[in-house]
Specification:
This protein has about 550 residues and is mainly alpha-helical. The chain has 20 helices and three strands. The chain has three domains: about 120 residues, no CATH class; about 280 residues, no CATH class; about 70 residues, no CATH class. Helix 11 runs parallel beside helix 14, helix 12 packs parallel to helix 15 and helix 12 runs antiparallel to helix 16.
């Protein structure tokens, strides 16, 4: 290896050394080289084009690219090649592209020409690289926002849900069947067998209606609150309730003309209630149409929703405030029961609103509705709330309306049914189903230990076992879809069913023998009159009124 390379000098030819010695700038700097071309010759067109011998295309002559770095080495201010530079692999790179080891005595400071980042800068970079201080920890994430009642899926399209309509129709039929099971309800002197009463689920269906109402309002109201949207919402809700309620009240008045006018006006204004209002004010229910007691609840919930829509309160605040009003009946006089009943029903309504706004949309057309319906039936028939209140000798909470305090334990089951039918919240379905199964099982164990198991409890136990066995089965919704037609007219069926049953009961032209044949004839006549009337009212008259008031959709 040439000695000049070991001493850190450029590895140039002898002729180049002689030329450097005779250069006018001789001795100016040992790092400077001649301004002539490669090989000592002056740059000519031939050397610039690469025709001259010894031409290296990686190194340009003086004035043609000073301070530029190439693979073969670095350029000085005059463009001449410099000392070998340090390569990434630990070897020195020569101007011609060859690599060789650096002499042990050479330092990094001696390997770089002036004006080029040398070993001192490299040492600074190396020290900074190896002496890096850890970055400061990221700031803690902001606390999660409170669980406010607002839509989490505002862009979800609103579609017609056939299984949901089928559930609505099934509930309407359960209410009508509950009135048909009353002894002498449609046929004087006739009573259905006791085991048929095990399937008396009218109050069960009413609570499901409350959850469905909150769910539907949540599905169709996902945009932000504005005064214009609020006015449209109120008009649509009024046109939903007023026509059918007016028709039901007037029809009940025709069938029972002895009803006082004060009661008729109160029912037309949605003021009827089974409990008295404060200051002794009370509007009685229609004697032949007690089903209308739920319509004041619906009207009040529609108004309360405006506050939820506008204020976006948290779920915790809404639940605590509602429970405070609901529990006021136990410490206040009897006049507070009316507000307590409204509050208990509002908990079911809010549950449906939460399902619509918070639970993820369905991805599977199948659902686990069989297990939910069976589990809800078992919990309702076992009635653990009544068992607990009786065990504690707390009879003040056992009212005779579906919105009783002891019925609050049915809230998870009602929410489970709506979740299963709509296919939303798979995780919530599992938790609610497990909770209902545990409570039902504990009630069966308690009644078995005290000898209180009856025939209805055995039917509930069978339903509970089937619900647990079918917990993981995702079934088709064709059974529920078969009731979708009745679901589309369910409101009119619910509102007109009771006065029609009473009118058929006093009719003298139908068979009156207290037999199953006469009973079935009257039931068939009821179906032949009720369903066409409900269809005409809800599918023809009510849409015409809506178009007249709101214009075409």
């Amino acid at each position: 290896m040439p000695s000049s390379v070991r001493r850190g000098r450029p590895a140039t030819s002898a002729k180049a050394d002689q030329t450097d010695a005779s250069s006018p700038r001789e001795g100016s700097s040992k790092w400077s080289s001649t301004a002539k071309g490669i090989g000592g010759a002056s740059p000519t067109p031939s050397t610039l084009t690469g025709n001259a011998p010894g031409f290296n295309p990686r190194v340009l002559p003086s004035g043609l690219g000073g301070r530029r770095s190439f693979r073969a080495g670095r350029m000085t201010a005059r463009g001449a090649p410099t000392e070998p530079t340090r390569s990434r692999g630990g070897r020195d790179r020569l101007p011609g592209g060859n690599r060789q080891k650096r002499a042990p005595g050479n330092s990094r400071r001696d390997l770089g020409p002036p004006g080029v980042k040398n070993a001192w800068h490299n040492r600074r970079r190396t020290a900074a690289r190896h002496d890096r201080t850890p970055p400061p920890p990221p700031p803690p994430p902001p606390p999660p926002p409170a669980a406010r009642l607002r839509p989490r899926y505002p862009d979800e399209p609103v579609r017609w849900d056939a299984p949901l309509e089928g559930l609505r129709g099934l509930c309407a039929l359960l209410v009508v069947l509950a009135h048909l099971m009353i002894p002498g309800g449609i046929l004087p002197g006739f009573a259905v067998p006791e085991w048929v009463g095990w399937f008396d689920l009218g109050s069960f269906a009413v609570l499901i209606f409350f959850v469905l109402s909150g769910y539907v309002i949540g599905r169709i109201t996902t945009r932000e609150f504005t005064p214009e949207r609020a006015r449209g919402y109120l008009w649509r809700r009024a046109l939903r309730l007023v026509p059918i309620n007016t028709a039901a009240v007037l029809f009940s008045w025709v069938c029972w003309p002895h009803t006082p006018l004060r009661v008729i006006c109160g029912n037309l204004l949605f003021l009827e209630n089974g409990a008295p209002y404060p200051f002794g004010l009370q509007v009685l229910l229609l004697a032949n149409n007690v089903n209308l007691w739920t319509l004041p609840y619906e009207a009040l919930y529609y108004l309360l929703f405006l506050g939820v829509w506008r204020g976006r309160p948290t779920l915790g605040f809404t639940a605590v405030a509602t429970l405070a009003v609901a529990g006021s009946a136990f410490v206040l006089p009897l006049s507070a029961q009316v507000f307590s009943r409204f509050a208990y029903g509002f908990l079911f309504w809010v549950a449906g609103l939460v399902i619509a706004w918070w639970c993820a949309p369905a991805e599977n057309p199948r659902s686990r509705w069989p297990a939910a319906l069976l589990g809800a039936y078992a919990l309702w028939r076992l009635d653990p709330g009544t068992a607990a209140f009786t065990r504690l000798h707390f009879y003040a909470g056992l009212w005779q309306v579906p919105t009783d305090p002891h019925r609050l334990i049915f809230l998870p089951a009602a929410a489970w049914v709506v979740l299963a039918v709509t296919g939303r919240g798979i995780r919530a379905q599992r938790w609610l189903g497990a909770g209902c199964a545990v409570v039902s099982g504990a009630t069966v164990a308690y009644k078995a230990s005290t000898g209180q198991l009856a025939g209805a409890d055995l039917a509930a136990l069978i339903a509970l076992v089937l619900s647990v066995a079918l917990a993981a089965w995702s079934a088709r919704t064709s059974f529920l879809r078969s009731f979708a037609g009745i679901g589309s007219i369910s409101f009119a069926v619910y509102a007109l069913g009771t006065p029609m049953i009473d009118a058929i009961r006093v009719n003298g032209h139908l068979p009156a023998d207290p037999t199953w044949a006469s009973y079935l004839v009257r039931v068939a006549f009821l179906a032949a009159v009720l369903f066409p009337t409900a269809w005409l009212l809800e599918r023809r008259i009510q849409p015409a009124i809506r178009r007249r008031v709101l214009g075409p959709a």
